Amino acid sequence: MEDKVPELPPELYDELRRLATAYLRRERSGHTLQATAVVHEAYLRIARGDGAGFKDRTHFVATTAHVMRQILVDYARERNAAKRGGGYDRVTLTEACGLTAERPTDLVALDDALRDLATLDREKVEIVEMHFFGGLSLEEIATALGTSRRTVARQMQRARAWLYRELNRENSRDGSATLPSG
Q1: pLDDT value at 95 more than 80
Q2: Torsion angle, CA of 42/17/139/101, rounded to 10 degrees?
């Protein structure tokens, strides 16, 4: 017998689909994963999970953002494995967050950096996930975390700086970044 998955309200489905569409627009051209598939997979993973309830819409979107991150990273890892690990570009978090949409996001490098950051400060990772993958505003994130917008903005700024340094350190190891003189 098949598990029954509760229906997602249409307005929430539309919001998640808009988020996935916006994210996939920043991916490389010719991407074969579709927004609808990302939303459906994320929802199925959540609905078939441990059944934990959600406090509100923001909590649900934040959780879905985390799951969507995992889906997209898994897809990127599979794609890169098929290419024997090559052929992808490194990006900064600023680029990944959509401040510029000229280059595709290297989700594998970003995920690795986020995992490293999580060992130091899980809350910063949650903020990045909610903003980058969930499309939540700083105000919505502050509400979800029960803190001020200003605190979230500071945490986001610190997370960006840390991730920028880590992603550029990776580029330096690859020989693609220049070393400072002096």
Answers
A1: no
A2: 100
